[in-house]
Amino acid sequence: MTFRASFRVALVALVALLGFSLASAAYADSGRVHIRIVKAGFVIGGSGGSGTLTFQGRKYPLSIGGVSYGFTFGASETNFYGTVSNIRRASDIEGVYGQAGAGAAAVRGAQGVVLTNQKGAVLTLSGRQAGLIISADLSGLVLTIR
Known about the structure:
This protein is of the alpha+beta class. The chain contains one helix and four strands.
């Protein structure tokens, strides 16, 4: 095989691979999310909650659980609203979302967060926090469809 023929074959393979990658990304969709999380702790904390994913005209109930480790003292409730992007089906929202952060809330406070799971789903959330909590911790959140 000559150099020119090899170059053409490689170029066609590269274009086909690039086209496939772009096409699969183009099929990704997004949805709306509402999540209610209750968090409490003293050094080791726990969180739990529920929510709803609205995706392609359907509503899916969500279950949330999590654990945190670091400096955590108090309890709070947060209602998050936002979007989930880069999903192809509702089940892509399921997974483990991790974060490191610091914050404090006395009675009321605002929060915003962007999280990604192992499937590439991106949660962009903002909301209101109520309670008395001070934290500087590593936390993980597990989200599943009920």
